[in-house]
Structure formats: structure tokens, C-alpha cells
Design goal:
two-stranded antiparallel ribbon, mainly alpha, 397 residues, globular, 56% helix
Length: 397
């Protein structure tokens, strides 16, 4: 009995120590992060090379100027630059109309005019910077990375003079038609990566527990706006990739703010959405209607993979959920892959170029989640043309 008790105590200590090493992340699996960190500590050559690439990227970001919604040269209809603002990317000046208004739609053709409003780019830049910096801190423990990430986060979310208001009332407005749309909510999918970064910064001197609490309050306010506002309800009801990305955000934000019951409720809703989006053979008809159908099919599959990863936090398995048509997420990736890697000729519209690297992280995840090395073989064929060290670091190790 004494021997058995001793072993039990030892196992308990080991479990506690491993748990203590896990970060509180929702999209990136914390166990996978811990495994990579362990490989780094054991001086695994391939892992050290990937960490070196991460450090180089993070070092280049140490001099990044903080960005804010206050940077834009335009003022939203509310009269406050603290409100996020952007313009619909696929709408253009109509020369047949007085003053070019209302703008006309050209699906898949991005209007460079949208770049005059800087909020979308700035939020994307913030997400990328904080992701690299927080990961660099997590793996190296060097405070300089956490300090920089914290300064960027404070500037965008917490400082009174520069913070963003928690709404997307004026996102993707169409000149001559409206000042904002529910569709614009897709631009805050960057906030999912930022929520993960907070978990990676845990324990640093530069980002305090009070900072986390304050940011969680901001996310809670934004989640409430998503679920109750006119624009939020429109996006919640969207039947295509916009609806999928809405769920990615809402579920992640619910988890980040400790509202697990709301997260579980929304996860159950997503099953009905997968029922309607995915055919028996893995097609996504609403994405195939687009002028860049392969790109949007991949984009929506990525959203579903993100959803499945996030749902794991409350014990829900969307990876293997079989919809009413008998299809799963594996059916979806199996249908897309031959076209994405060039094995089959695409028969739908794709007026823009297609980047094979967009499907690369999906194949890496599929290999792990569906326990099939064929996906890894296909991914390796893509990586011969171009590398994706960040995906390799987080998912391939």
C-alpha cells in the first residue's frame, strides 16, 4: 500500500507540473505547444530551427510602431474615431451614376480604395505582431517579447486615448448604400489569435492579470454586441463562410471570457450550419457560387477547422460530426484537396490566383486529427515549393 501510494503521489506531481506548463489557449492546442517546448528544451534540431525563425520574426517586430483605430484619416458617422471603420472590398465607383453613387458590386475584385481607411490593415498587423511576439515569449521566456506585445495590446485596447470601441457598426460600409454591414464582422476574426496570445503571455511582468481581466471585459462587451446588434444578428444568420466565421469568433470570445455555457450553446448551433453547408460529397455550394470559388471553399474549410479546434475546449468533437447528408469535415478536405494541389482541374470560377499554401495548414491538421499520413504526404509536396514554418512549428511537430 505504501509503495502504491508513493507511485500515486509521484504521478499526481507529474500531472500537476505538466498542467502548470500548459498555456491557456483556445485555438492552438496547449498540449501541442507544451510538446514543442519540450522538444526545444531537449535541443531537437528541427525544432530549434523553427524557433530560430520565430525569434528572427519577433526581433524584427520589436521596433514596430503601435497601431490604433485613431490612425485613420476618416471619422465614422458616430463622430468618434474610436469606432472601427472599413469599406466593402468588392464595391466600386459607378461611372454611370451621379458622383459614382451608389457603388456597384464586382465580386472577387478588390477595390484598392479600401486601403485609405487603415483600421482593417492595422488590426491585421496587430494580430500578426502579437502572435509572433507572444509565441517568442512563451518559448524563450525573454521578457522583451512580452513587453512589446503588451505595449501594442495596451495601445489598441486599453489606453483611453487610443482604444477601439467594442463594436463593428461601421465595418465594410458601401458608399451610397450604407455605413456598415454585418458582413464586416468577418474582419475581427483577428481577435481570435489575440485571445490566444493573452494565454501565451501569462506569467510575464509586462502583461498583468489585471490587464487580462480588463481585456476580457472588452471582449465580453464585444461578444454582447455580436449577439444583440442588428449587424451581429445578420452575420449570425449568414449561411455561407460569414456565418462560420461568426461562430469561430463568438465561441472563442465566450470561452476567453469564461462563458462556457454560451460557447456550448453556440457549438450545438454550428452543427445545423454544417448540415446546410456541406453536401454528401464534400462540396460547399454557397462558396462555389463565388467568383473565387476554390479560394472561398478553402477559406470556409479553414473556418470549420478553427471551429473544431476551439470546440475541443469544452469536449465537443466537431472533427468527426456527421451531418444530415452523411458528410464530415474530412469529407470537405478530401473534396477540396485534389483541386488545391493541382491533381484535378478546377471547373468552377477562380478569377484570382490560388495559393496552395492556404490548404497546407489544413492538410497538416487533417493528418493529425484524422490519423492519416496521406494528408502529410500531400502537404510535403506543397512545402517543396514554399515553406510555412509557423504551421510546422505549431502543428507539424
Amino acid at each position: 500500500m505504501k509503495k502504491r501510494s508513493f507511485i500515486s503521489v509521484c504521478l499526481t506531481i507529474i500531472i500537476i507540473n505538466v498542467s502548470a506548463q500548459l498555456s491557456k489557449t483556445f485555438l492552438i492546442n496547449p498540449q501541442q505547444l507544451a510538446e514543442v517546448k519540450q522538444k526545444m528544451q531537449k535541443k531537437d534540431k528541427a525544432t530549434l530551427q523553427l524557433i530560430d525563425s520565430l525569434k528572427k520574426k519577433a526581433n524584427a517586430l520589436l521596433n514596430m510602431k503601435p497601431v490604433s483605430v485613431m490612425d485613420k484619416g476618416f471619422t465614422p458617422p458616430s463622430g468618434s474615431k474610436h469606432d472601427y471603420m472599413s469599406q466593402a472590398p468588392y464595391f466600386w465607383y459607378d461611372s454611370t451614376k451621379p458622383n459614382g453613387l451608389p457603388y456597384m458590386r464586382r465580386d472577387g475584385v478588390r477595390n484598392p480604395e479600401i486601403n485609405k481607411i487603415t483600421d482593417h490593415k492595422n488590426l491585421g498587423d496587430l494580430d500578426e505582431a502579437v502572435r509572433f511576439l507572444s509565441l517568442a515569449y512563451y518559448f524563450t521566456g525573454e521578457e522583451k517579447y512580452a513587453e512589446k506585445a503588451a505595449s501594442l495590446l495596451h495601445y489598441w485596447f486599453l489606453y483611453e486615448d487610443t482604444k477601439m470601441n467594442p463594436n463593428m457598426e461601421y465595418a465594410q460600409g458601401i458608399p451610397g448604400i450604407n455605413t456598415g454591414r454585418g458582413i464586416g464582422i468577418i474582419e475581427t476574426r483577428s481577435l481570435v489569435g489575440i485571445a490566444d496570445a493573452i494565454g501565451l503571455l501569462d506569467g510575464s511582468k509586462s502583461w498583468t492579470k489585471n490587464d487580462t481581466k480588463t481585456l476580457q471585459q472588452w471582449y465580453a462587451q464585444y461578444l454582447n454586441w455580436l449577439l444583440t446588434s442588428k449587424n451581429g444578428k445578420e452575420e449570425h444568420a449568414a449561411k455561407n463562410n460569414h456565418g462560420t466565421w461568426f461562430y469561430v469568433q463568438a465561441i472563442d470570445f465566450a470561452l476567453f471570457t469564461g462563458n462556457n455555457e454560451k460557447a456550448k450553446q453556440l457549438i450545438e448551433e454550428t452543427k445545423k450550419r454544417l448540415d446546410s453547408q456541406l453536401t454528401a460529397d464534400g462540396k460547399m455550394p454557397l462558396e462555389l457560387e463565388r467568383t473565387n470559388a476554390l479560394g472561398y471553399s478553402t477559406f470556409n474549410t479553414r473556418a470549420w477547422f478553427d471551429l473544431a479546434s476551439i470546440a475541443e475546449n469544452v469536449g465537443s468533437d466537431l472533427w468527426h460530426y456527421k451531418n444530415t447528408n452523411g458528410a464530415t469535415l474530412q469529407t470537405a478536405i478530401d473534396w477540396i484537396t485534389p483541386y488545391a494541389v493541382g491533381e484535378k482541374k478546377w471547373i468552377y470560377q477562380q478569377i484570382g490566383g490560388y495559393n496552395k499554401m492556404d490548404v497546407y495548414p489544413l492538410l497538416i491538421q487533417a493528418a493529425r486529427k484524422f490519423k492519416d499520413s496521406h494528408y502529410l504526404e500531400q502537404a510535403n509536396q506543397i512545402s517543396k515549393e514554399r515553406s510555412d514554418w509557423m504551421t510546422d512549428l505549431l502543428y507539424k511537430q
